[in-house]
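Subject: Sanity check before I submit

Could someone independently write out the structure tokens for this chain? I want to compare against mine line by line before I put it in a report. The sequence has 195 residues.
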Amino acid sequence: MTLGDRCARRRSTTASGADGRDEFVRSTSSPEIEAVVPCPTMSDVAVTREIAAPPEAVYGLVADLTRMGEWSPENQGGEWIKGASGPTIGAKFRGANSHDGKSWKTVATVVDAEPGRRFGFFVKAAGLPIAEWAFDIEPSERGCTVTQTWTDRRPGFFKPIAAKLTGVTDRAAHNREAMEQTLERLAAAAEPPAG
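---
Independent answer below. Compare away.
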């Protein structure tokens, strides 16, 4: 199931009724959690790699956000916050990131946690939506196929500000390269040593 498959347009309402704005409702794998965010028909960047390891093992690695810095060239890991201790729907995580001598922090909320299948989280910084990240894992003959996706959620006015804060002017191109490195490092960690 893709992100677009789980999106539906609805009319935004206020206490006095419909206010005329459209908003999009993105349902998650848990019926108790529903994030009201713009829903795309496709991700901005998607990178896929075959990994010779079981889906459950790969899921265990990507769902441990405290270890993300071992795979990602930009994210340096972080910590579960607000009472969270692991990857469950609604759990929050503070991530530390760095690039070219600049550093910043974000807060992520887990929106998908299907062991062995899908792990996704929605990122905010300074109260603003930033991105949605997901790892989709499909069984394959060699182990599994992992697709990492990034969807840009930044408001238009914030994109030039983010470029100055992070030192990244072309976020899509930067993320594609970083995601390729992430999946390469993930494969190296997940796959058994060649013998």
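---
OP: Matches mine. For the report I'm noting this point. The first strand starts at residue 7 and ends at 14.
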